[in-house]
């Protein structure tokens, strides 16, 4: 008899990811200004925070990837770790 943990892990390993669809095609995410302002990052530098949760709700995967990579590079010197929150 399998333990509940083992059943869960086996189920998680066989899980499939549903395709992503966007209902509102007119949605346009906020674009990062060029050059990106470091004001928010310098504020975080003096706070005890070390994690930043970013919304990943840009339908253009290339733009999302580029912006996230740039933000990660800017946050690194401040000791900040960035994560993307999956968005429906």
Keywords, please?
single chain; 88 residues; alpha+beta; two-stranded parallel ribbon
Mean pLDDT equals 71
Beta-strand content? 5-15%
Give the helix proportion (percent range): 25-40%
How many domains in all? 1
The coarse overall form would be globular
Low-confidence stretches: none
Order of helices and strands: HHEHE
Class from secondary-structure proportions:
alpha+beta
Largest sheet report: 2 strands, parallel
Radius of gyration: 18 Å
Q: What is the count of DSSP helices, taking H or I runs of 4+ residues?
A: 3
Sheet with the most strands: spatial strand order: 1-2
What separation lies between the terminal Cα atoms? Answer: 36 Å
Count the beta strands.
Answer: 2
Describe this structure in words.
- Strand 1 (51-56), helix 3 and strand 2 form a beta-alpha-beta unit.
- The mean pLDDT is 71.
- The N and C termini lie far apart (36 Å).
- The chain has helices spanning 4-13, 39-45, 61-75; strands at residues 51-56, 81-86.
- It has a two-stranded parallel sheet.
- It has one domain (18-86).
- The protein is α+β, with helices and mostly antiparallel strands and 88 residues long.
- The protein contains three helices and two strands; from the N terminus they run H-H-E-H-E.
- InterPro entries: Xyl_isomerase-like_sf (IPR036237).
């Amino acid at each position: 008899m399998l333990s509940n943990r083992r059943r869960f892990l086996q189920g998680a390993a066989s899980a499939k990811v549903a395709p992503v669809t966007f209902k509102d095609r007119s949605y346009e995410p906020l674009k990062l200004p060029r050059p990106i302002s470091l004001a928010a990052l310098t504020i975080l530098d003096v706070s005890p925070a070390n994690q930043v949760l970013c919304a990943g709700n840009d339908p253009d995967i290339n733009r999302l990837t580029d912006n996230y990579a740039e933000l990660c590079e800017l946050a690194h010197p401040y000791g900040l770790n960035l994560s993307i929150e999956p968005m429906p």
